[in-house]
Design a protein that fits this description.
A: 5-stranded antiparallel sheet, 7 strands, 15% strand, B: alpha+beta, NADH Oxidase, 3-stranded antiparallel sheet, 33% helix, globular
Chain lengths: 189, 436
């Protein structure tokens, strides 16, 4: 094991002969990935009794705290227009979670390169299930404009190519699927 | 430095599989029979063999708590909200026909550990397979997806250990601060969320091994045995594997058995054997007196502390309204501490302490733990809307700045720093007596 200084940055895994395979080789059978099966899992029912909520500001902080416990590194809530085509159910809010990405999941197609996607799916699956168990609607959807929504929710700004750039991670960030919900929240933007 | 103990001269071993050394806490001393998974607590209960209250608790109760309905292995309103169901019932992927050649098993062992850590696992260790770590053949194995399609069902444990020489244990730890509110929904959150995360990591790791071109089997190895053999930790008086970094606050999930060329790890010595001889904190605080105060016994050929799993299990329906997982023995264990330099210093000093001096060191460390952490935990923990200061069964909104009108709130405001952990020891002594 190489000596590691606090300032030597992230582990580059240069001494690992199999790391390249882990990050970049696309899986031969997608059934071997967790991402596919979580993404394709059907959403459950909404619990019939609505949970007692606090004020929208407190509910927002609880949603954020819960998502952080599930592993999200950035979270914001965007207020939605009811009339946009990406929001056919006309839900008022979108919850946006983002995690850091050491490798861009659009290029790195290996199981390791897709790790931000896997982490994001874990967060959105459990968080949306929890919102439905609170008695409210929660729809997980992957839109092309998810980065723009995240920028709207105050996670960062968009660069020239429409990708999210954040204070903490720069462009090395992956925005998980948006959770559209009618849970009464206080939007960040 | 501690002297090396030799394994017991062959009790159950053979020339090919000599009796394994499992550290100082567990010893295989006589004839050992492989465990039939179907005779373990949950399957027994699923068949209704433990009585109606437990059967109904397992199958027919829905939790009042939304987070429990999402994260606990039962008590959900909708099974589709439970991630482990989704993950474990998924179709199994094919093994990649293009094998990645492994010339250096040590590099591959490092790689698999790095991969599991990258996926979010907290402790990853590898055990060299031994027949005694495996469930019995012939349908005795635990099949995750419930379809009971096990290609190797007829193989004996010896054949399995020959064909798949390594077992990988990748595990997640529970959040320390939330665990302090054990016997409470907050403690449940620490346990259950890391459990579903761990299940997902293991599924992803299993898939990755198949993508490397090797077999990855689940549900064939006994987690506790693998945990001890691979050096995740040592077996404590409370029947839990106690690790160096996290103490008892780690899951022992279903390990992965594989033919991927790896290098096995050795059992560790962090002085659990010496500590458990003296400490007995878990035995004294167990709400059901299920943990022995006496010495180790030989059970199924294995010398270890034997807990009474039935009385432990039987508490659950009585407390279902308030919480799901007890976790008391894990919480009070002096090894269960945050991952800090002083905890590392304590376990490291136990590791390097000569055996003869260990009782003294243990008594000192236990005194420190009693003094600073306490004999039992009754600290008040708040997390999001949860507050362990609110008595079970009562409703009170303790969220600062909340001016919403609550239907059920009406209970007096909670003050003080004492948490309420039901049931108290006095209450449970009535229905589970300590054996004389």
């Amino acid at each position: 094991m190489a000596l590691k200084f606090p300032w030597s940055g992230k582990n580059s895994h240069k001494d690992d002969p199999f790391w390249e395979f882990f990050i970049n080789t696309p899986p031969a059978d997608l059934t071997n990935t967790v991402t596919e099966l979580i993404r394709n899992a059907p959403a459950g029912n909404i619990f019939p009794n609505k949970a007692e909520l606090h004020t929208p500001e407190i509910t927002s902080s609880h949603v954020k705290g819960m998502a952080q416990y599930f592993g999200t590194e950035m979270i914001g809530i965007a207020k939605l227009d009811a009339n946009v085509p990406s929001n056919p159910d006309q839900l008022p809010f979108a919850v946006l979670c983002a995690v850091h990405a050491d490798y861009d999941p659009r290029q790195a197609k290996g199981i390791g390169g897709q790790m931000p996607v896997q982490n994001g799916l874990f967060i959105t699956f459990v968080l949306s299930a929890w919102i439905r168990e609170l008695g409210f609607r929660a729809v997980v959807a992957r839109d092309a404009n998810v980065d723009a929504l995240a920028a709207k929710a105050g996670l960062g700004t968009l660069n020239g190519s429409g990708r999210l750039v954040t204070r903490e991670f720069g462009a090395g960030v992956y925005v998980a699927d948006a959770i559209y919900t009618d849970l009464p929240l206080a939007a960040d933007g | 430095m501690s002297k090396v103990e030799t394994p017991t001269p062959n009790a159950n071993g053979s020339a090919e599989f000599p009796t394994p050394y499992l550290g100082r806490t567990v010893r295989i001393v006589s004839k050992f029979e492989n465990v039939d998974m179907n005779q373990s607590p949950h399957p027994k209960n699923q068949r209704g063999e433990l009585g109606k209250p437990l059967f109904n608790w397992y199958h027919n109760t829905v939790s009042k708590d939304p987070l429990t309905r999402v994260s606990a292995p039962n008590h959900f309103a909708d099974r589709r909200h439970f991630l482990s169901t989704v993950v474990n019932q998924a179709a199994k992927g094919k093994i990649n026909p293009q094998k990645v050649p492994v010339n250096d098993p040590a590099a591959m062992a490092r790689h698999i550990k790095a991969v599991a850590h990258y996926m979010g696992a907290d402790i990853v260790r590898i055990a060299k397979a031994h027949p005694s770590y495996l469930y019995a053949s012939g349908g005795g194995r635990y099949v995750q997806d419930g379809t009971a399609k096990d290609e190797y069902a007829a193989s004996t444990p010896e054949q399995m250990a020959r064909k798949f020489p390594y077992i990988i244990m990748a595990t997640t730890a529970w959040d320390y601060n939330k665990l302090q509110a054990h016997r409470h929904l907050i403690g449940d959150a620490a346990y259950h969320i890391s459990q579903i995360k761990g299940n997902m990591i293991l599924k992803a790791l299993e898939g990755y091994i198949k993508e490397l071109g090797y077999t990855a089997l689940r549900g064939v190895a006994v987690p506790q045995a693998v945990g001890v053999a691979s050096g995740v930790g040592e077996l404590g008086r409370n029947g839990l594997v106690i690790s160096k970094e996290y103490g008892a606050r780690v899951h022992m999930p279903d390990p992965i058995m594989t033919d991927l060329p790896l290098v096995g790890d050795e059992p560790i010595d962090i002085g659990v054997d010496d500590f458990c001889k003296v400490c007995r904190k878990c035995a004294n605080t167990c709400p059901t007196n299920s943990i022995p105060v006496g010495d180790k016994v030989v059970h199924n050929g294995v010398e270890k502390y034997k807990i009474n799993w039935l009385t432990c299990y039987k508490l659950r329906p009585y407390v279902h309204d308030h919480w799901g997982s007890c976790l008391t023995c894990a919480t009070v264990c002096p090894y269960t501490k945050p991952k800090t330099w002083w905890h590392n210093m304590a376990t490291t000093s136990l590791h390097y302490c000569p055996y003869v001096l260990r009782p003294v060191l243990v008594k000192f460390l236990k005194w420190v733990d009693d003094r600073f952490w306490g004999l039992v935990r009754n600290a008040r923990v708040t997390w999001l809307g949860y507050d362990s200061g609110v008595k079970p069964g009562e409703h009170a909104c303790t969220v600062a700045g909340c001016n919403a009108s609550h239907e059920k709130a009406g209970a007096k405001a909670v003050a003080g720093s004492v948490g309420y952990y039901a049931p108290l020891k006095e209450n449970t002594n009535r229905f589970v007596k300590r054996e004389p």
